[in-house]
Amino acid sequence: MDFRGRLLPERGTLAGYSALIARYDLVLPLPPRLAAIADRHHPISTDDWLMLTPRHQPHAELGPQLTFAFRYEGIDLQVLSRLFTAVDPEEIAAIIRAAPTGAFARRLWFLYEWLTEHQLDVPDPGKVRLATVLDPDQQYALGQGEPSPRHKVLNNLPGTRAFCPLARRTPGLQALSNLALGDQARAAMGRVRADLMARAAAFLLLNDSKSSFAIEGERPSGQRAARWGQAIAQAGVRALDVAELDRLQAVVIGDARFVRLGLRDEGGFVGVHDRDTDQPIPDHISARPQDLPSLLEGLTIFAHRAAQGGMDPVVAAASLAFGFVYIHPYVDGNGRLHRWLVHHALARAAFSPPGLVFPISAVILRHIERYRAVLESYSAPLLPLIDWRATDSGNVEVLNDTADYYRYFDATSHAAFLYDCVEQTIIHDLPQEVRFLQAFDAFSQAVQQVVDMPMAKVELLHKFFEQNEGRLSQRGREREFSALTSDEISRLETAYAEAFGA
C-alpha cells in the first residue's frame, strides 16, 4: 500500500494520524513516522512506519483514532492544527463530554483551545489528577510545566501556539541524552591546566567562527571572523528577542551597503535562478513576511521556556536553530545566526561549560552532506505544498497560508544530528586541540634548548615540519632558517618527532 508516496512495509490499514490525514485530506508534510495496523500478528516496524497488530485496531470514528494517535504516536501539533480546522467544534466537544475526567479528553480539550483559541462548551472535570499535555516518555517536554486549571492538565509544551516544534524520544536520542555530554566536557576541562584550556577554547572559538562562514561559501577577513567569534562567545549572555537577532545580523553582515538589514519585507527562498529567464528555482521557500513577527516572537519565547523549564538543552537548541533557518527571516545572515542559536541555547541552559564554545560549525563542515540532508528532510517535502509565483524582481510570493508549516515541525532528526555534533566536539575536537597545545609547548621548550628563537619563528618552524613529514625542507634550510647548522636542524627535527610523535 502506498500512502502519499510512502510505502507501508507490509499489508495493513492506516491508523491514528495517517488515517485522519487520509479521511480529512489534510494538506501538510507527512510526519516522519506514521502508524498502521498490520494484517498479521507479528509485524515489523521501520523508521517510517510503526506497525501494530490487529488487536490494536481502533474504531474508525474520530475519537478512537485520536486516542490511538495520542497513545502510540504522541502529539503532532501540525496534524492537530489542520484537523481542528477541518472538523466541527461540536464533534470535538462531544468526544470530551463522553469522558470529561479522562486524561485523553482533558489533553484533547487543552490542545483544541490552545491551537484554535476557541473555547468549547464542556463541563468542568472536577477534582482530578493533572495530566501532562506531552508524555515525557514519548516526547521531549519541559521538566517544569505550568498548570491549566480550566483543563486540569500540566502544560509542558516547550513553546507557544506561535512556535512549538517537538521531538520524539527515540531510543537513539535517549541514549545520547543519557551521556550527559555537558558534564563530560566540564570533567575534561577540569583535567587540563587552566591556561592551556583557555588557549584551546580561544582556538575552538575562532575555528567555529571561520567554519560557520565556510559553510556559507565565504572566506571572511581575520577581523570579520574574530568579530563574529566574539558574538559567539557572548551567546547566552543576553535574553533573546528580535532586537538582539537584528543586532547579530548586522554583526554577521558587516558591510551592509548591498544587503537590507532587519526582517524581510518580501518573500524569500533558498535556491538559484534560471540563467536564461532569471526565474527562481527554489530548494526551500521561507516563511511569508507577514508571518515573521509572530513566528519570531514565538521562537524567542520557546528559547526562554526551554531554558527555564528544564528541557533537554541539545533538543531545545536543535528545535530553535533549525526552526529559525526554516523561517529564514532575513535577506542574508540566516545560516550563521541559525548556528549561533545553538550556542545561545546551550549556554543559556548552562550545558556548555563557562568559557568554552563547542565548535559545532567545524563538525558540521566536516559532515556537510549529512547536514544538508537533515535540512532537506523537512524542506524538501514542504516545497510541493507551498503555492507561489515568481515576482518581477526574481523573488517569490507565497500565495497560501504556510505559517503552521514553520511553527510545528518534527525536530527529531535535527536533534539527533546536533547531539552527534556535540558529542564529536567533546570526544574529538576538544581533546585534539589540547593534545596539540601540549605537544607544541613541549616542542617550543625543546627548540629553546637548541637555539634562542622568537615564538613567531618557532610557529613557522613547526609549520615547515608539519608540511614536510617532520623534516625541514630545502627551501627552509636555504631561506627562512639558513642560520641553523646541520646539527641544530637534526636536533630540532628530533624534538619535533618526540613532541608530535612523527
From TrEMBL:
Residues at which ATP binds: D332, G333, N334, G335, R336, L337, H338, R339
Keywords, comma-separated and alphabetical: ATP-binding, Nucleotide-binding
Protein name: Cell filamentation protein Fic
Domain Fido stretches: 240-391
Organism: Caulobacter endophyticus
Residues at the catalytic site: H328
InterPro entries: Fido, Fido-like_dom_sf, Fido_containing
Molecular functions (GO terms): ATP binding
PANTHER family named among the record's database cross-references: FIDO DOMAIN-CONTAINING PROTEIN, FIDO DOMAIN-CONTAINING PROTEIN DDB_G0283145
Any Pfam family hit: Fic
